[in-house]
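One such shown below:

_____
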Amino acid sequence: MSQFQCVLHGSFQKHFPEIQRIHRLFTVAGIKVLAPAVSEITAFQDGFAILESDTAQDQRMIELLYLHNLRQLGENGFSYFVNPEGYIGKSASYELGIAQVTNVPCFFYNKPIDHPAYLHANSVWSPELLAEWIVQNNRLPEPRIHPSETTIHQLWEQLMVPGSVVAVGGIIEYDSVKTQTEKEILLVKTHKWGGRYSMVGGKVWRNERLADALVREVQEETGLVGKVDKHICTFDQIKNSGYYKQGTQHIFVDQVVKVGSKKVQLNYEAQDYIWTPASVALRELDIEPNARYTIELYAQMSSNK
């Protein structure tokens, strides 16, 4: 199981015993809780709890040190908000805002009643079910968006996205030893690209190497186990690709991924796939601009061998 880490948030004054219980529950499940530490409350100052483990007395310093734990979460990290009655509280509301704009996955005990936060449809979990799901699936639950809230979700994502987003893409290449003809590559058809074909890929997680991210994306989206081969290109955007977001620089790193099987099992991200030589794909398929650019370079590289 991958090392999952979390930060627990909530009202220490109202729900500290429950926070401690969830701390123990997550720890037993193999989920490392970075904060709060397992200690007792020594005092309340203006409604703000001070723990035995706190190294400072200034409330601002305590809160900032607590928030710095979010930076240590890594690609398998998340925030869990302990609000059994829906109440989050002032400090946790502030922490929620910081977590969301820094793109930390957030899960909740109950839907907040004292905060107008946007929650996607898969963000409310009891601690028991969330821990069980993570252990069984070895990953965090994916966001689900109600069709009626697509615009709200897009606005929320625009707030979360940092100044630069790094994404990896793969020309998945099946190299059969039985034939000397042009190698076949895998392309997927997705709703994201309006029914056009594209490559398999996705965003790089925090603290994740590019090659590891590409192998992960290929396995998640196709079920194929691959090995990263040669680099094809790195670029920041293709003009009129339809993927541009104002204020965000998208950096794409595309490489060849060699696989030894053509048995594809698509996940929810794609609706269809095709194995085809690159030359046929460029001539006959409706391919989104970013992928077409990479496939053209790949075809040139292959012909120059």
In short: The chain has a mean pLDDT of 85. The chain is about 30% helix and 25% strand. The first helix runs from residue 12 to 28.
